[in-house]
C-alpha cells in the first residue's frame, strides 16, 4: 500500500547527502530556498517575503505527512549539516498507485548532483517500500535543468499541456514526465 511509506519516516544516508525528516531548526535554511526568486521562477508560488511564510510551508509539510497526504524530505549536506533542499512525493492516488515528485534546491548547490542523488533515493523508497507503480513530475517548459535530471533518472517525457496553469498574469505550459516501476527496475 502507498500508506506503508507513512508508517515510519524513511531516512537515507549516502556519501553525498542525508535525506531526513524536516525539523523546526530547518526553517532558516528553507527560507533561503523559498525566498529566492531565481529558484522559484519555474514554480507556481511567489518567493517568501518573511520567515513566517516559510514557517507556514514547514507546518504544511509536517501536517501533510501526519495526514498521509505527502512526504517531504530535507536534503542535507553531510559536510556541513546544512539543509540544502527538499524533495518528496505528493498528490498520491492510492487507487491508481501513483504519486507526484517534487524538489527544490538552494541555488548555491545547483549542478553538483545533489538533486539527482536525492531523487534516486526517494524513487527507490517509493517503489520498494510502497505500492507506487508510477511516479509523475510536472515541469515548466523553460526549466531545462529539471528536464535533464528527470531524463537522467529514466523518466519519460509524456507530453505538454499547453497554457494549463495560470500564475502571475500568464498562462504556462506544463511538461509531464513519468517513471514506471517495471521500467525502472
From TrEMBL:
- Determine if Transferase is one of this entry's keywords: yes
Q: Which UniProt keywords apply?
A: Transferase
Q: Which residues form the N-acetyltransferase domain?
A: 17-182
Query: What protein does this entry describe?
Result: GCN5-related N-acetyltransferase
Read off the lineage from the record. Bacteria, Bacillati, Bacillota, Clostridia, Eubacteriales
| Pfam families (alphabetical) | Acetyltransf_3
- The answer to whether UniProt assigns keyword 4Fe-4S to this entry is no
GO CC annotations, alphabetized: cytoplasm
Q: Name one GO molecular function term.
A: protein-N-terminal-alanine acetyltransferase activity
